[in-house]
């Protein structure tokens, strides 16, 4: 939250898709104009880099985003996510 309070309403955040992405998006969204979730295919390019630092990783995500070529991942709203969990749970119970 300390990081989030330093952000501005017209900032855009790009994060890699991970297991806790939805929680991070929900935390940061009120502070910025947009939170973009990068497709894991691009994250793989970061993982394969020989020199790995947070600054390099950030640049690898920021450059294609700034040019409009960053492959993005869609994140459902809370209602859609809840319905998906209900359907998944029902499917598990039925099978």
Description:
With 95 residues, the chain is mainly alpha-helical. The longest helix is centred in the C-terminal third of the chain and has 17 residues, at 78-94. It is built from 5 helices and 2 strands, in the order αβαβααα. The model has no long low-confidence stretch (mean pLDDT 88). It has a two-stranded parallel ribbon.
Q: Quick one: overall form?
A: globular
The whole-angstrom Rg is: 16 Å
Q: What series of H and E elements makes up the topology?
A: HEHEHHH
- First-to-last CA distance: 41 Å
Which key features would you list for this structure?
5 helices, mainly alpha, globular, single chain, 54% helix, 95 residues
Topology of this structure?
Blueprint: H1 2-5, E1 12-16, H2 21-28, E2 34-38, H3 40-47, H4 54-67, H5 78-94
Parallel strand pairs: 1-2
Concise summary:
It is built from 5 helices and 2 strands. The protein is mostly helical and 95 residues long. The protein is globular and about 45 Å long.
């Amino acid at each position: 939250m300390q990081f989030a309070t330093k952000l501005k309403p017209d900032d855009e955040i790009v994060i890699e898709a991970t297991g806790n992405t939805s929680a991070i998006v929900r935390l940061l969204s009120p502070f910025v104009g947009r939170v973009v979730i990068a497709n894991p295919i691009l994250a793989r390019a970061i993982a394969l880099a020989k020199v790995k630092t947070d600054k390099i990783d950030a640049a690898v995500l920021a450059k294609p985003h700034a040019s409009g070529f960053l492959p993005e991942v869609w994140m459902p709203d809370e209602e859609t996510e809840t319905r998906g969990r209900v359907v998944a749970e029902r499917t598990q119970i039925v099978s």
